Amino acid sequence: MFGYRVPAPDEAMLISGGRSRRGGAPFKVVVGHGTFVTPLFRKARYLTLSMCESEVSETCVTKQGISLNVRAVIAFKVGNDDESIINAGQRFLSDQDQMSTLTGRIFAGHLRSIIGSMTVEEIVTERQKLATEVLDGSKAEMAKIGLTVDSLQIQSIDDMNSGYIDAMAAPHNAAIQRQAQIAQAQANQAAAEAQQESQRKQAEYQRQTMVVQAQYKAEVDKAQAEAAQAGPLAQAQAQMSVLQAQTELAHRQAELRQRQLVAEVIKPAEAEAEKVKVLAEADAARIRLQAAAAASNNRVALDRMLIDQLPMIVKEAAAGLAGANVSVLNGADGLSEIAAGLVSQGLTILDSVKKGLSSPAGDEVSRFDPDQNDGSQTGS
Prior knowledge:
With 380 residues, the chain is α+β, with helices and mostly antiparallel strands. Helices cover 64% and strands 14% of the residues. The chain is elongated. It starts with a strand and ends in a 14-residue tail after the last helix.
C-alpha cells in the first residue's frame, strides 16, 4: 500500500519529520510492525538489530612487564529497547559499520587495562577471568552507545617469541614428558610382558596341540586296529551265526522228517499190524467155531453160533482198529464206510466158515474129537 512501511524482523524503522517525539527523541522507533509514512513530510530509515562481530588484536604489558599479544572476538548488537535503538541510531545510523570499529577500540582499552593488573601465569591459566573482567569494565560504555555484548572470547595469547610462556610451561612439559616417559616405559614393559605371556601361551598352545594330536593319533590307531580286528571277528561271528542257523534248520528238518516217517511209515505199519492181528483173531475164532460145530454135528447150531458170534467178531475187529492211528479224511462218510467194512468183513468171515464146513476140511474137523478140544487149540 502506498506510504505503508514494514521493517524487517532484524531491523528497527526510524521515522523522522513531523512533530517532536516524546522524550525529546528526534525520530519515531517502529519495531516488529508497519506504519504509514507520509511522503514528503516524513522519512523512514532502518537500523540493523542483527548480531555483529568485532576482532581485537592488542599488544598488552602484564604486571610483570612482559609484553603479550592478545587476540579476542566480541559478539554484540544494538539493544532491543527504544532507548538503546535511539542511542545507536543517533551514533551509527549514517555509518553502521562504525559500530564494530568503536566496539573494538573500547574493548582494546579495557583489555590493556585489565592485563596490566595480571601476571602472565594468571592470564594464561585464567582466561575466563580475564574475559569476565573485560566485559564488566566495558558494559557501561557499550550501554551508552546503545550496544549490548553477547560474548567475549580470548582466542590467543602470544609472548611475541620472548620465550616466557615456553619457559613457564617447561616444568610442566618436563613433568609431562617424564610422566610420558614413565608411561611409555610402563607401556613398553607391559607390552614386553604381554609378548612374553603371548609367547608362553603360544608355546603352551603348541604343546597342548601336540598332546592333542598325539592323543588323536593314538585313538585313530586304536580305532584302526580295532576295525582291522573287527572284520575277521565279525566274519567269524557271522559264520557262527550261519552254522547255528544251519544246525537249527537241520534239527527242524530232522523233526519234520521224523514226523513224516511216523505219518507215512510207522502209523500205516501199525495199522496194518493191527489189521493182521484182527484177521488172525477172527481166523482163530473161525477155527474154534468149526471145531465146536464138528463136535456137535449140528450145522444149524453151528450157524446159529456163528451168527451169534458175528457181532463179537465185528466188535473185536473194531476194537483192534480203535488202537490203530488211522486218519479219516472224509468225516462222517469215512466213519460209515469203516463201519460197513467191518460188518462186511464179519459177513465174509461167516461165509468163509460156512464154506469151510462144507469142504473136506470140514469133514476132517467133524471127525475131530470134541472131548480132546478144549477150545484153546486150533487145527492147522
